[in-house]
Amino acid sequence: MPKAVINLSEHANRVVNVIKAKEGLRGKSEAIERIVQEFEEHVLDPALRPAFVEDLQRVRKGSFRKVTNLGEVLK
Q1: What's the pLDDT tens digit per position in 26-60?
Q2: 57 lies in some domain
Q3: What is the residue range of 44's domain?
Q4: Where does the chain have alpha helices with state H?
C-alpha cells in the first residue's frame, strides 16, 4: 500500500478529524480513505467506475447475431 506525507490546512485537518470521529474510524488514514470513497461515488464519470467495467465485460460476452441490413432487425 502506498504511503504519503501530506500537508493539510487547519480547516482540512479539522474536517478529517470530524470524519474520523463521526464514522468511528481508527486513524486519519481511514478517514481520508472514506473521503476519497465518497468523492469517487459522487464525482467520477460512471465510465471509470469498476461496476461499469464489469457490466461492459458482461455485455461483451453476450450472444450476438450478425445483421447485414436494418430491415432484418425491424421485422
Answers
A1: 999 999 999 998 887 777 776 667 787 788 888 88
A2: yes
A3: 10-65
A4: 10-23, 28-43, 50-60, 70-74
